[in-house]
């Protein structure tokens, strides 16, 4: 294989640039030409493709977002869209493709593989909701961003003896809420994977107030409900001086942490190695600190993302009131 390409798709995640950098530099090291595709699958179909050099990816490892840009392109789900993309790959002489993104990106990667183009998927989403890996690129940075906000919000909550409801991202997964909530010492962590009792939460806040606790921090995953609705429901059980904060897209930005940079670098290099070996239709993962390869079809159809492999939710319940 002498010529490959790389694209980023779906929501941006800190560390995507580090992954692209690794693909390019590993490829060049192995004597392979590497092309970058702008705006994901939309750019692929449009032929927005350019050759990348070692210099092109210089000074990128510490930057958030993706310098290849990203775009939603639902038209790629159709065979017509896929064939247009393949036409562009043939035009540029590209023999293999690295797709960096989430499950939607994986579906596009799988479609290309079925059409005969070896494609490797790299998991990159702050939601951390991809099956076959304990951690996705961007997740560690996101939870540290949330943690910084929790620490600051606590100051205000304590000063005014308030209950603060903090809504975090994650789509249908509770990973961001769980990890940042434990790290931030939240009194309650509400995630889609676990049921909760609002009356029980209210009673817990009352008990805390009785022992002169000055604040309560509740971290709510967006997959459960919106923060304003949660705050309104909680207020039905008592006047807890409840306020809410929606952190929003700030969670997706920022310079990636060391962990995300290393994870992205290893994934990027391994993707090139797999393509060189003539392999495709695979996704990369990190499970129990070991780097693994998964079948793309199996990842999308059969594997399930495990939100809490370490029983962190149970731990949060045991230590949150200490």
Automatic annotation (TrEMBL):
ATP binds at residues 11, 72-73, 102-105. Substrate binds at residues 125-127, 162, 169-171, 222, 243, 249-252. It holds the Pfam family PFK. Allosterically activated by ADP and other diphosphonucleosides, and allosterically inhibited by phosphoenolpyruvate. ADP binds at residues 21-25, 154, 185-187, 211, 213-215. Mg(2+) binds at residue 103. InterPro entries: ATP_PFK, ATP_PFK_prok-type, PFKA_ATP_prok, Phosphofructokinase_CS, Phosphofructokinase_dom, PKF_sf. This is ATP-dependent 6-phosphofructokinase.
